[in-house]
Amino acid sequence: MAPSVRLSPAARSLFDEPLAIAVQGLGPRQRVTLRASLRDEAGELFQACARYQAGSDGELDLARCPALPGGSFSGLEPMGLLWALQPQKPFRRLVKRDVQSPFLLQLEVLEGHGDPPGQLLAQAQHERAFLRDGVRRVPVREGRIRATLFLPPGNGPFPGIIDLYGAGGGLPEYRACLLANYGFAVLALAFYGYEDLPKEMKELHLEYFEEAVNYMLQHTQVKGPGIGLLGLSKGGDLCISMASFLKGITATALINGSVANVGAVLRYKDITIPPLGVNAKRMKVDKSGLADIVDMLNNPLEGPDRQSFIPLEKAECHFLFIVGQDDRNWKSEFFAVEGSRRLQAHGKEKPEIVIYPGAGHYIEPPFFPMCAASMHLLVGRRVVWGGEPKAHCEAQVGAWQQIQAFFRKHLMGNPSGTSNKL
User: Fold this and answer.
1) Angle ∠(52,396,217) on CA atoms, nearest 5
2) Same topology for domains 4-129 and 136-412, yes or no?
3) DSSP state letters, 221-243
4) Which candidate, 294, 387, 384, 388, places its Cα nearest to that of 332?
5) Where are the domains positioned within the chain?
6) BAAT/Acyl-CoA thioester hydrolase C-terminal domain spans which residues (predicted)?
7) 225-248 average pLDDT score
8) Is residue 220 a contact partner of residue 256, using CB atoms and an 8 Å limit?
9) Disulfide: which of 204, 336, 345, 366 matches 16 by Cβ 3.0-4.6 Å?
10) How far, in Å, are 176, 193, 213, 394 from residue 171 at the CA level?
11) pLDDT tens column, 53-84
12) How far apart are CA 212 and CA 219, in angstroms?
């Protein structure tokens, strides 16, 4: 019997779902190298490889066989070939721009443990998709809003969430659509660097975000009486500002967010919140030119920088802080702890804080490979984001479950936070 790759699901899976990988038809104890390859939409190649030895029956199941030293990872890692994918061109982060098309994953089984490995023994292709069948993608251009709404299959109304990314701008949709696969109506909202929105993030007006909140609250497919907010990085402090000043917010989840306004002036009616001060002298640059910026921001508890602290005690919602303990973008754990102190000092409910040791800044949906370093648009140079790949991957799986359970509990009144997958 010739060697062959066996996948489950066989041909297609959602990007955030586990993929079972096995090889059959090998010789007893045969040594092979498995290689995974994926090209992003610009054609850039991401690859990972691992060394294995088949069992005495010629079977190799990644759920039972540990990878041997010498590849991209070692040990028992059923999803290692996905989370260990690395760009062949440095400083590139894997993102998905068109969620309507899948990523195509190539898997190869190669002879031996040489470098380079030997001849090709077997190969397979697999689609890693972002939209479950029946999820509707609706571009939104109402008033000033520039967004995309994802609606689950079936008859609503569904619990509603607004999803915000960080200082990179544009309109990333992949987290919003993956979340919609699990029964949420999710609005991916752009706030600069997209279509006719401002090209740069110099000044932000909460009235724009209020328009998006009202759009969701009035939508016939969105279950009231309030909605949820989900934000990463700069999107996190925007979510805190929205929860603090706007009505109709029930639950706010932040991924490595700040409790101070960062990067741009924030205005709402007659209120102005200045951005937190920055001291570029506190940037550390290594020999290769990579910058560590974790100490650059001023302390929002001291001096005039206290004006940048967002008054989250005004919020009438539940908070969840997801923290990567090795975040090198800024001090996410400090921000979460200070946010909790401020809330409790004002008699508010203590927020949930979930801390992941070994996780860096970009905590994405499950199985996105960790981005160790890339260009930071606001800093204008390549920076390190922190994290250790295996721990970071585990954090992404855990955080994804925490976020869904948090929104189920507070938007659906489901105290157990459990749900059947659609």
Assistant:
1) 145
2) no
3) TEEEEEEEEEEETHHHHHHHHHH
4) 294
5) 4-129, 136-412
6) 205-412
7) 98
8) no
9) 366
10) 10, 8, 17, 26
11) 999 999 999 999 999 999 999 999 999 999 99
12) 11
Looking at CATH, the fold of the domain delimited by 136-412 is given as Rossmann fold (3.40.50)
- Which tokens belong to 22? 């096995």
Strands laid side by side in the 271-273 sheet: 203-205, 265-268, 271-273
CA distance 160 to 185: 5
Question: Could you list the active site residues?
Answer: 233, 327, 361
Measured N-to-C along each axis, helices 234-245 and 206-218 cross at an angle, to the nearest 10 degrees, of: 70
3-class secondary-structure state, position 9 = coil
Using only C-alpha atoms, the chain has a radius of gyration, in whole angstroms, of 22
- 139-164 in b/e form (b: 16+ CB < 10 A) is ebeeeebbbbbbbbeeeeebbbbbbb
**Structure confidence by residue, pLDDT tens digits, 320-343:** 999 999 999 999 999 999 999 999
Residue type, 414: N
CA distance 348 to 144: 33
Distance between CA 24 and CA 185 in Å, rounded? 42
With H, G, I as helix, E, B as strand and everything else as coil, classify residue 394: helix
The answer to whether residues 237 and 310 touch, using CB atoms and an 8 Å cutoff, is: yes
What is the CATH class of 4-129? mainly beta
* pTM, 2 dp: 0.95
Q: What is the pLDDT of residue 420?
A: 41
